[in-house]
Amino acid sequence: MAGTFALVSMLVLFVAVALFGVLRPAGLSLAWFTGNADWWMFLVSVLTLLATATIPVALFLFSRASERRAHDLMQQQASTLAALTTVQIAIRMDILVEQAATMTQREDRQAVLEEARKLDSGRQKTRVFEAYWRNPATPLCGDYGELDQLGASVVAGSLKTKLRDVDTFEAMRRLQRFVKTVKEIEAKSISSQVADWVVERSEEGNGPGDTSVRRLLEAARDDDLYGALLYGVNRRSFHTATEREKSARVNVTAGVCGAFLERIAYFSEADDMSAPATRERDARLVGLSSSMLQALATGLTNGCYRGMSHWDTEGMSITAGGAAAYVVAACGAGSFGDRHLAMRCLQNIPGMFHSKEGFRNTLLRYEEELNFGGLKFEDYHPDLVAQLWPSWRDLIGDWVTRSASRRERS
């Protein structure tokens, strides 16, 4: 502003001097200045003109400077207000997240969710809803069965917390509904998290029985869950497994194998077990059969089922021999797709029974399951049976002959 004022002043002064140079007569002297009234009138006029021209310019420039300062101040105030608003929103978000994660009453949780739905930020909404699904008081499928993709993922990772104080029967009932809903909404597979919870609860000595495991698999309709459960209970070999872990292995293995046999319609043929299922029917479940055979062959090869028919531990919902019979039936049913895995199963199945007496005791109660497995092996891999079964004779006696005669009658 000062530079502009000086420029205008110099311009006016220059004009005044120029005019004086034009009007002034020759012979300029100091006396002329002091005695010439016209000069002083001219000077006063120039100064008046200068002042008149400068004042509006100065006022304009001062106004512009004031506006600029006012604008800067407003921006500073807006920035401060925005910072305060951000802090307030962050504080409110923390409160909403805390409330969603801890409130025990359904109406209170729903009020929090209603406020969260009004938030502009999708990330903020997600934080609140994640806390809601983690809340132990929130049912696995939500207060009103509103389970979605986010909820399925969060709940699956929070099963241990959400079901900690729930008895196993009720927990399995809730879990069955949860996995069924997950399948219905086509959410991402949660097989590993579900298997981890089942195995951990089982190895704590308070796990589900084989029937509950079977019903869970029926509700889930998730083929990945079969293998996840088997690998979970077979993490340790027979030599390092505790009594609780052996009990869990019996229950979970029998439940998984039973569910698999139901999938291939084994139990629908219970009245005529002499008729083996057709290869075409089993082929509909190629993926599941392959994963089952892989998991069972791995468990057998690693000695996880060694001597199973003689196990006698608390907490088993089925005899250990019954679980071994289900393993034989499942291995035979799933063996059509992989010759190498079938061979590994045939080589290691005798180790489950440990002795002729153990096998015969199992055969008395689970003859149908054992015969089903034997017939399936004979159907799919007759050369392997001819090669490997002679070494079984000391263990199984005339079972090969009996199963073969059943096949001939069919």
Structure description:
With 410 residues, this protein is an all-alpha fold. The protein has helices at residues 2-23, 30-35, 37-102, 106-117, 122-134, 149-156, 159-162, 168-184, 191-206, 210-220, 223-233, 243-263, 279-283, 286-301, 320-334, 339-348, 350-353, 356-365, 367-380, 382-388, 393-396, 399-409. Helix 11 (223-233) packs parallel to helix 14, helix 12 (243-263) crosses helix 15 (320-334) and helix 15 runs parallel beside helix 19. It is rod-shaped and about 150 Å long. Residues 270-277 and 403-410 have low confidence and may be disordered.
Portion of residues in beta strands equals: under 5%
Number of helices: 22
Helix content: over 70%
- Quaternary status: single chain
Element pattern in H and E: HHHHHHHHHHHHHHHHHHHHHH
Number of strands: 0
Rg calculated over all Cα atoms: 45 Å
Which residues sit in consecutive blocks of at least 5 with pLDDT less than 50? Answer: 270-277, 403-410
Largest sheet, described in full? none
Described by the principal axes of the CA atoms, the overall outline is rod-shaped
- Structural class per helix/strand content? mainly alpha
Distance between the termini: 112 Å
Average pLDDT score: 80
